[in-house]
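Example 5.3 — AraC family transcriptional regulator
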Amino acid sequence: MVQEFYSEFEFRTEIIRSLLRSVLLKTIVPIYKANAKQVQLGVSDFYRLKSYTDEHFRQRLSVAEIALSIGKSVKQVDKLAKDNAGISVKELLDERALIEAKLQLAFSQYSITDITEQLGFNEATNMTKFFKRHTDVSPKDFRQLCRMGLRKS
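Solution (predicted structure tokens):
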């Protein structure tokens, strides 16, 4: 490359460019591919985790049970969740249960007790505490607010 740099050949710039491209292809591309493969693995693992939590949130599984089910350690699944969603696995589960609770309360005729059972809570008081902790309103009040909003439209 140094010889080409000092040569008088009219296509020296093209030759140097080609040589540099070859060096980059030989050194940088394998590193890039390795990093890209790691990222893809992380994303597909997170997709498996998210799919599993979406399918099984009603069972109120522990993080350890989820980790075992997808073949990872508790630390690995928590890191996976934090890296990809910015929240813990427990928060992923709670978020999904909360979405379902809101949907059921807003759009179904099921009683709060029935919704409690559907979401895997042992008692209505547990579901009420969970719901209030995340929304600052009780399930009953949330349902009333939603129904008032639907009537106004």
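Remark. The mean pLDDT is 86.
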